[in-house]
From TrEMBL:
Sequence similarity: Belongs to the RimP family.
Keyword Amino-acid biosynthesis listed: no
Keywords, ordered alphabetically: Cytoplasm, Ribosome biogenesis
NCBIfam families reported for this sequence: PRK14643.1 (NF011236)
Function: Required for maturation of 30S ribosomal subunits.
Originating species: Williamsoniiplasma lucivorax
Lineage top rank: taxon: Bacteria
Gene from which this protein is expressed: rimP
GO CC annotations, alphabetized: cytosol
Ribosome maturation factor RimP N-terminal domain span: 15-90
SUPFAM superfamilies, per the entry: YhbC-like, C-terminal domain (SSF74942), YhbC-like, N-terminal domain (SSF75420)
Pfam family membership, one: RimP_N
Gene3D superfamilies xref list: Ribosome maturation factor RimP, C-terminal domain, RimP-like superfamily, N-terminal
Full protein name: Ribosome maturation factor RimP
One GO process term, biological-process aspect: ribosomal small subunit assembly
Amino acid sequence: MKNFTSFKTQITDLANQILDQHHLKVYEINNFQEFDSDVIQILVEDKTEANKALSFDTLLLVNEALSNMMDDIPEIDDQYLLEVASAGIEKAIRNEDELIKAIGQYIHVEFHDPINKIQKTDGTLTGYEQETKTFDIEFFVKGQKKKLAFTWPIIKQARYAVKF
């Protein structure tokens, strides 16, 4: 879609107006080609609860309302498909604030360099120390509970994870 970046902010603002009524917010907006069609994808998440499952019916309501409002944006003159979807159960944790909101959740974290010989792990994020900006994660190694402290800058990648 040509000039997508010129009206992406407008779409974000419209989407957040509608999503706010359902206690949701925009996680990410993408534009891509799929089967020769332009797709505007709006990934959403719950405003209050980290990684909460979203109702299909709510997503459908939001999609319909947003579709109607986007028809009034004059800059969008190309045909497109609108997709409003959950950001997903294993969505990326993109910054320190999102990691703070993930406290109490099961996550996957990878480090740039190993900490106590741990390069990556899945575990429950159990705490955050504001003064030192240090996070704590609890995980199991060979059946034994372990705890590891780390800071945001040493993280290579973090995301929510599914506990089996």
